[in-house]
Amino acid sequence: MNVTVHRFIRCLLALTAPAALLSCSRHQPAAMPPPRVTVSQPQVATVTNWDEYPGHLEAVESVEIRPRVSGYIDSIHFTDGAEVKAGDLLFVIDPRPYQAELDLAQARFELAENDLQRAESLRGTKAISEEEYDSRSKAARVAKAALDVARLNVEYTRIIAPINGKIGRRLVTMGNLVQGGAGAASTLTTIVAMDPIYGYFDVAEEAFLRYRNNASDPSSPGQTNSPLACELALAGEEGFPHTGRVDFFDNQVDAKTGTIRVRGVFANADRALVPGMFAKVRIPAGPPEQTLLIPDVAVGFDQNYKFVYVVNPTNVVETRTIETGRSHGALRTVLKGLTPQDRVVVNGLMVAHPGAKVEAQEASAAGAPPAGQSSTRQ
Q1: Residue range(s) defining the domain that contains residue 103
Q2: Is residue 279 part of a domain?
Q3: What pairs with residue 336 in β-bridges?
Q4: How far is CA 298 from CA 20, 31, 111, 182, 377, in A?
Q5: pLDDT confidence of residue 33
Q6: How many CA atoms lie within 13 A of 24 on its CB side?
Q7: Which of 31, 156, 296, 312 has the CB geometry, 3.0–4.6 Å to 332, for a possible disulfide?
Q8: If you average pLDDT over residues 42-67, what whole number do you get?
Q9: Is the CB of residue 349 less than 8 Å from the CB of residue 319?
């Protein structure tokens, strides 16, 4: 009986063992393919490095319009915010009191001239003393001076624009009394020149010395027609669309801040630049130089150093420590650590690990954004 049982068990095991092995083999997972990453070789390009500064805009010329004589505003001859030219009539102060003074001064001058002419005829016959002649001569000169002042006062009742520019709003209306003179003269409006316009900014002493040297270097960018090129951008503008030139360095360095005031002059034909605005200004830090550029998103940080992931010829990820320079849009200058032949991981950084096997795909084949545009970290 025991022998029969043992034979049965052996037969059962012989039949069930292949099925068990087959069942185990069916549950083994398939080998996973290596993760896919996008790589790009560093670009060799000639770039210009720029220094950026906060600045503000000021008008080349700015005038407060004030009357030289007192009186009531008789008429106003401009539209608020309009462009005016030098010589345009702006205000008229009631001229009648000053015209009356001019007529009186004219009569007094003619009387003094007649007295002087009679004195000259009597002087030849010694019928008049020298003292009397001198008195009438001086009286004629005083009358002439009073006549000139009266004529000026009549002219000053017509207030004209002294410069070309954009006029502000009128600060007085018709019928109001305004005070003239050099002391407490009323402000009637303002005019600011719009084209060109100044951009002021402060730079460090070391940068000032470098810019001064670049200004005399004909190989520096923008030196064909200007001493030193500069560019400007307003808030919300893409890039630096306004080009100009540096035309002034201040005559001393501020000892408290170690900076010096610099001025750029910019064309403003479209009136996009308004005095008082804040802006960003940039100046070339030096002549153009050839360098390597990689997408900024490829650069990683680890405490005191920067690195990128590089795929070697066997498609294994390696870490490469690099030294970077300035940014140029979405690209970053690489000073040390890479060659133009290296394949830098620009997409798939989350699945790229040192020593991992990957499937590398070129950025152009993968539809990566072109140079100068940002890409997304995967």
Answers
A1: 95-156
A2: yes
A3: 323
A4: 50, 29, 94, 66, 8
A5: 83
A6: 5
A7: 296
A8: 92
A9: no
- CATH code, domain with 338: 2.40.420.20
Q: What are the tens digits of pLDDT across the range 311-367?
A: 888 888 888 898 888 888 788 889 888 888 888 998 888 888 888 888 888 876 433
What is the number of domains present in the chain? 3
Closest CA to 332 of 53, 54, 43, 52: 43
Q: Residue 271 sits in a domain of what CATH number?
A: 2.40.30.170
Q: What is the CATH number of the domain that holds 118?
A: 1.10.287.470
Q: Which residues contact 103 (CB under 8 A, 6 or more apart)?
A: none
Last-in-domain residue among 284, 313, 346: 284
Q: How many CA atoms lie within 13 A of 16 on its CB side?
A: 6
